[in-house]
Amino acid sequence: MRMRKKKNCAVRMENAGRLLIREPAEQIGVWKHCFQNDNEIHVEIGCGKGNFCIGMAQKYPNVNFIGIEKCDDALLIALEKSAQLPIDNLRFISFDAKDLKEIFTPAEIRRIYLNFSDPWPKARHASRRLTSREFLARYDKILKEDGTIEFKTDNRGLFDFSLEEVPEAGWKLEAHTFDLHHNEEMMVGNVMTEYEEKFSSIGNPICKMIIRR
Ligand code: SAH
Q: Cα of 1 to ligand 1 centre, how many Å?
């Protein structure tokens, strides 16, 4: 996502208070302390401007959510939006998901959401796609045994690639659709992301898969 540089981004990030976890590696194994409860933890990787994890946190107050984003200009918007709302079960971190094992212990996470992840269209960049076998191996290390990954995108090429990676990496496809917004069953409880609003409004079908090991 190309974004205009935000004015005073660093200072404004500092003002985010407890919403932003500044040293995520220090929370490894003890994330529950920062939420002060034992509820399960769901992570969104590449949360962008935060609409999805904010909406989910509001809808499911008994689940803890962590939004991970490597672009601080997008993250700042997510932080400033959530600061206006009374939400206790949401935190954000500025972090590259390739190093997930530095911040979560094996089996600390119940669910991972990947929404409209960067497509990395060149074949030589395939391992950077968040649904590549390399990333699935990273998720394998932090997700509970019965944990799931939910992936949405309007990019059919990336979705087809992901459908192939799933069995290659030893994961199972639990459910999938090439047109989420016309799939009544899979739409139950759907929370829209920024990209989902944008691309579905111009008529792009949204694909979704749910996978587990
Ligand atoms: N999920 C949002 C944004 C999608 S754009 C939505 O659906 O509207 C993809 C986002 O993923 C970008 O903000 C990008 O910075 C972030 N991202 C891509 N690779 C990442 C990585 N390895 N770690 C953390 N964030 C990543």
A: 7
